[in-house]
Amino acid sequence: MNVKAASQKSGNLQRQKRINKTLLLLLLISIGILIIVPLLWMLSTSFKPKSQWFLPEVYWIPKTFTWENYEKILNNDTLPIARWFLNSLLLSGTITFFILVVDSLAAYAYARMEFPGRRPLFALLLATLFLPGVMFLVPNFLTIARLGWLNNYLGVITPALAGVFGVFFMRQFFESLPIELEEAAQIDGATQFQIFTKIALPLAKPALATLGIITFLGSWNDFLWPLLILKDRALLTLPPGLRTLQGAYTSEYGQMMAGAAITAVPVLLLYIILQKYIVESVQTTGLKG
């Protein structure tokens, strides 16, 4: 009787696991659909002529396929899309590089080094995560104005380097690394910086890749701050630049969708290239070795 009861209980557990897995799969599929559908509609609209933008029927595949929207934004002297694209690439790449350098150094210090006030200072940094970013707009703008960095890329890059999320994220990863590796290196005479560069950083590639794509995506899609700082049309990045396609009374939706499709390409490519490291980071971060 006990064997039969145990077998029945095991069967119920297996059935419950299958049900939970199925429900989780359905939830993930639903979230994926919610994300993919707007992207597909954006891509579809970018290939539609103006006469098909506001049809009462929904056509996912354009009745008339055209490259007109892409040609208009790429061959328009008043819309320097290529320049805006390069500006976005330059700013996002620079911000991502310095964020990875600064945040990894700070995170390793909080994870492995002892210094006065380490815990209270880290707690204070974490507290700033709960503050809305809009609170910092005016102080940051006044600071950048007094430094004379308005209409300058330094004014866009510098405030972005003060993010706290990257420090917290990398600290959690460094704390998950086996301390025995660093202790062995110390016995061999390695300095703290050598341990950081030769042991901790190579092991942190998955976390760095994840932080890199999050930072690049945030910088690439940033609209408000570049709009406030950059006044010269030639210095604009893609998000505020494409905003000029929307007027007070009319909007070139086809061209806006074409521009949005061009904007999405670098991020998708970056994600595809770093996908392996991102998955590895999710699997390993927080696990004690």
Task: Using brief descriptors, characterize the structure shown.
mainly alpha; 13 helices
Structure description:
With about 290 residues, the protein is mostly helical. It has 13 helices and no strands. The protein is flat, with a radius of gyration of 25 Å.
Please specify the SSE layout and strand pairing.
Blueprint: H1 2-46, H2 68-74, H3 81-112, H4 118-127, H5 137-147, H6 153-160, H7 165-176, H8 179-187, H9 192-203, H10 205-220, H11 224-229, H12 238-242, H13 253-284
Q: What is the CATH topology assignment of the largest domain?
A: MetI-like fold
Measured distance between first and last alpha carbons = 42 Å
Radius of gyration: 25 Å
Main beta-sheet strand count, sense and barrel state: none
What gross morphology would you assign?
flat
Q: Indicate the low-confidence ranges by residue numbers.
A: none
What is the number of helices? 13
Q: What average pLDDT do the residues reach? A: 84
Give the amount of beta strand, in percent: under 5%
The helix fraction, in percent, is over 70%
Beta strand count: 0
Q: Can you identify the CATH superfamily of the largest domain?
A: MetI-like
Class of secondary structure makeup? mainly alpha
Query: What's the level 1 CATH class of the largest domain?
Result: Mainly Alpha
Name of the CATH architecture of the largest domain: Orthogonal Bundle
Order of helices and strands: HHHHHHHHHHHHH
Number of domains: 2
